[in-house]
Amino acid sequence: MFIPGFKIDDHNDKLLKAHQRKLKMVSEEIRNAENIIEKLMQFQVAIPSWALGTGGTRFGRFSGKGEPGTLEEKIEDIGLLHALNRSSGAISLHIPWDIPRNTQSIKALAAQLGIRFDAVNSNTFQDQKDQSWSYKFGSLHHVDKKVRQQAIEHNLEVIEYGKALGSNAITVWLSDGSSFPGQLNFRKAFQNTLESFEEIYRRLPSDWKMFIEYKAFEPNFYSMTVGDWGQSLLYASKLGEKAYTLVDLGHHLPNANIEQIVSLLLMEGKLGGFHFNDSKYGDDDLTVGSINPYQLFLIFYELVEGMDERNMNHATDLGWMIDASHNVKDPLEDLLQSVEAIKIAYAQALLVDKEKLKAAQQENDVVMAQEVLQNAFRTDTRPLLTEARLRAHAAIDPLLLFRELKVRDELIRQRGSVKIATGL
Ligand SMILES: [Mn+2]
User: Fold this and answer.
1) How far is the CA of 248 from the centre of ligand 1 (A)?
2) Which domain of life is it from (predicted)?
3) Higher pLDDT, 62 or 346
4) How far apart are the CA of 324 and the centre of ligand 1, in A?
């Protein structure tokens, strides 16, 4: 399915007056509206290839309809999102769920839709049909060299797929760990993992980055071999300048201060990328911003402040990716909400009066520090997002237009009701 430009124009014409009224109001309130709009236009969020279908839990999966059955259809779905919001111009591929069989035509399709290839993801947390050795007891940390070697080769293969598509980063997330005390020698597990990472790192193209994602628990419940940002940073530091830590919001213990983690990783030049989602209890993979939008704003404030401190480009110097599972919502509607929530938090962070905050911190004026942050958080930045979309020829209200055009009905008509997408 393809959304023609005139449908977007018709939609925008109807909503234009109301938008202009709101934009005028907020632009009068804040100092740097034009600057924020320009930054918002640059900012793109990568959509994961595994999140375009309905996700499941350990207990069941209630598939949606009209789901994409091939990588081409997944790219087409992201093309729909990108046509609606002009902020989803990237895809993060998961191998082997989405092996690009015909690289040239896939590249051409993505280019035609304005989509580039963000980090590629390896998968050694599941056994594949024809593999020789099982990952039941881990992959890169495994006690048996044969298993480690198989996992290393898989990661090298993923890099090759990424190279062919024009990607320039690999994200490695390991489920390696232990579920019972005594199961592992922690030191040995770390050293095996480091050696395996070194093999992969050695073969990383010179202009690539390697993102090491950590997770506190699950599927292993006693220890994880890359369990927190300290362990990830240790690996990344030992590996070298192309290795970075990747922060997935859901991969922390409850109440962890993620904004502080982000700040310190940026300070060390070791923050590589981000996986956005939200959670109430654990790795719930809910829509980013749906549970705790204030935390998302605080994280973005540290991102903006830390990136500015290092003269980094907000749009291009970190990997911005969504990593969520849509179990009860339409995945495409959920992704539209996700991108919107990320950009709202980003715009709020850009609003913070840094000089005033700095002065409050210097004076130990705790009350004023809170006022400065919350003034930004309580400003409605949505008209700025809308204006950025309008200028990029996207829809004033992407979700509304998605429903008005009956996109899902059309996808069901084209693809049928029973197809199940590969992924979570
Ligand atoms: Mn993740």
Assistant:
1) 5
2) Bacteria
3) 346
4) 8
